[in-house]
Amino acid sequence: MHEVLTGKDFLRDHSTITEITKDTVREDVQSAWDLFVEDKITSRANKVVGVTDTTYAKIKDVMSQGVWDGVPHYEIGQNIESVMGEKWKARGETISRTEVNSAMNAAMLEDARAMAPTLNKVWACAFLNSRQDHMDADGQSVPQSEPFIVGWEEMMEPGDDSASADQIVNCACTMFFEPPEEASDYGVEPSRRPTA
Predict the structure, then answer these.
(1) Same domain, 95 and 151
(2) Final residue of a structural domain among 87, 115, 143
């Protein structure tokens, strides 16, 4: 006699298969994302004040390993401090937050341009105690090819390393994407746009 799977048994077995597939896909996507962010980290120019290019190369290695291991920025900062020595106490976390967040936002924008180029990007301010310019930019929705206006500066993404240190050091902002027809009128008034 053949076994017949009832609906409940089928769904249980199907769910298990689906979960296994999802886990494999999730791992592949996570690995690809980690490599994407790692590439953004390793290709960054040294903008850290008082740091030689040789030292910055070591910092990038620590950050890349931290992203690959999936550790939070404060732990990456501690690893920077431990590798770089006593002189780096309290600077490691700032460097990690600034550099890793910047690389992740750049990777996110590049990914969105490839996968969903018609969506608007939207600035998302992460904390209530963020700098005023970033709180003012929160919710600003613009096409992916256009910059956000943050303070008086143009930034393609939070942490854009073409912006001044005032706008990127310790920035924890991020962005999300939405259809242009869902964009609000919230944003920067035209008088605050930089002039060429």
Answers:
(1) no
(2) 115
